[in-house]
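Hi everyone, sorry if this is the wrong subforum. Our group has a chain we'd like a structural model of before ordering constructs, and none of us has done structure prediction before. Sequence below.
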Amino acid sequence: MGKRRGPVGRQLVAAVAVALVLTHLLKGVGRVAAEPVVGAAVVVVCLVLVGLQSRHTRKLPGWTGQAPWTRWPRRPGQDRWPRWPGQDRWPRWPGQDRWPRWPGWAVVEVTAGFLAVGPLGVSAGLLCLPVASLLVERRRLLLALLVAGAALVEAGRAPGVREAVDLLLTVALGGTMLYAVTTLALLAGRVHDTRLELAASAVTGERLRIASTMGTGLDTGMAAIREAAGRGDPSELDGLIGVARRTLAAVRAAAAELRSLSLAPEAASARALLGSAGVAAELRIGHREPLGPAGTVLATVLREAVTAVVRVGDARRCEVSTEERAGRVVLRVVNDGVPTAALGADLLDGLAGRVRAVGGRLTAGLEADGRFAVEASVPATPAAPAVDPPELRTALALYWFVLAVFCARALMFVPGPRLVLGAGCAAVFCAFQVRFSIRDARRHARAALLASAVLALLPLPWLGHNWIGAAGILAGSLLIALPPRAGAALAGAVALSAAVISGGGAAAVPLTAVSVLITCVVVYAVLRLVRLVRELERTADGRARAAVVAERLRAARDLHDLLGHGLTAILLKAELARRLADTDPVRCRAELADIVRLAERGRAELGTMAADGPRLSFTAELASAATILGAAGITVESEDGPLPDAVGGVLSVVLREAVTNVLRHSRARYVRIAVSAAEEVARLEVENDGVGADVTAPGSGIGGLTVRLAGAGGTLTAGPDDGWYLLRAEVPLR
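Answer:
Right subforum, don't worry. Here is the predicted structure as tokens:
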């Protein structure tokens, strides 16, 4: 959807305008030989009317019904354009907040149309272009005058009442369709231009909701920790530790709830975990997000299934895939580790109940090719029903009006004995159009097109010349339903076949074919723009959904990487202070002072989460990491180097997660932290000697870091390295 949609709309409006004047233009060209002045005047009027239509879709100042002098340069200090004489004396309608726009271009268009219809003798059907303009600009008085004038002209020169009514219906039909196409083109341009604003608005709303949710519980917990530590009373350490543990649990629960909308973090963790174990990973994601509460269950299934693959340790390849099938999201984890079959069912038994609790199913076992598969399916989050904007509903109603006018015009010229046949054919043909063109039904669409072709062409010799409109409607539907080349070829074949079947001799075939193609262009433009608007609406909605999911994942990563790390450090220092309370009161008070500092920093970071994200200093983070690891009795060796602020902020989060993993997942006694910037790449390495035979897999935060680094163009690797555990992050310097 990256292409601009405005030009497409303008091209379709221009195509319909040209199609509506094409017959009059060709007749004008034909009159040039016998009446050079009159023929040339007709050609000029047709081109002028087409050109004036472009003012409705050009996004330039002063084109939509404004006076031509509004495009003139203003004098220095002039804050508005000149008013025309007597403007201040015009009455305003109730509730009208401005004076009516100058109707000059509309008057010019109506005058040109009546000049052609009156003195130049052109058919009144040419007035459909001024009708469309007056509808777009909502000039009711001029529209009423134009309709009255057209009726008087036709009353004076039509051979009968039926012919006069038929021509007036033609004017109404053409004007209505050109108005519908113009309205849809403007709507498509507006939806395209505002799609980013809709996404930004959705992100802002989600950011405020997250900030409100976090502020009610987490900020209170951090404030209580800061207050208890600030009193410096060792007797309150037990209460402080209890508050810190509850707050940390709340942080992890909030992060899990935010992550539940997407499988992306768990999928990234799975890829990293499989890669560290030497298993080739293949991920295929085919579901729509957000997932809703069931996403947490699928994330748990994915994590446990991949952990089982790594623990067994004989797999060489693992495939993770998701898809939507029959209203359910299906997750499959398939690996070639055959012994897993003996263990997999036992390992996954505990998940079956959780999956059933959300209305899902969980199966595990060998497949026909000998691989072991775990499959979980949960109900998909129902999509909100699509609601068409008012302009689109209006355009669709006008297309219904087109079908109604087509039926009326066709049946007007059907002989009495064949009226029942004509009414039946019209009803069935229009029913197919409503279902397969307006409602865009897919089932049996090709069969419906074939039946429509039979109804449009076979009755032509018996239902009168106005039934030719059915062939044009069919041709426009073919252009929509089929690939461009096939649709164009079949539309041309339908036009030629209709011209031949309708009779009238060889001389009438070209004009009849042109008439069919005119209707084809009009129908195609309406249906194409209806689909375009709906496509843009779906794209805008999908973009907003993706932006909301991304915002929730950002907040989840910040909670896990920043607040979770800070609370882990607070717990570590509080427990150390409790051990030192009796033996080293001075050191105990120092640890309490550090807890105050960490709590204040946590509250500040919590406040920044409502913005675009926390801004961290790598130097300060490195010093904090050394302090926390030292408090745990771990020797730290660090190699620091200068980093740009943007890169330092990203690597600060990585460092926090690395330190948390050392504390939670290893028995390290020595940690080396090295950061460098060379060859346009900033590199952070955190290495520890805590790798053992029973070391567990890295935490799920590794997946969040992988996603975060990918957003900055960087990479993350983690795994055993020559008896040590090495985490390496690289971010381009730019």
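For your construct planning: The beta strands are 280-284, 317-325, 328-335, 361-366, 372-379, 635-639, 670-678, 681-688, 715-721, 724-732. The domain at 293-380 is CATH 3.30.565.10 (Heat Shock Protein 90).
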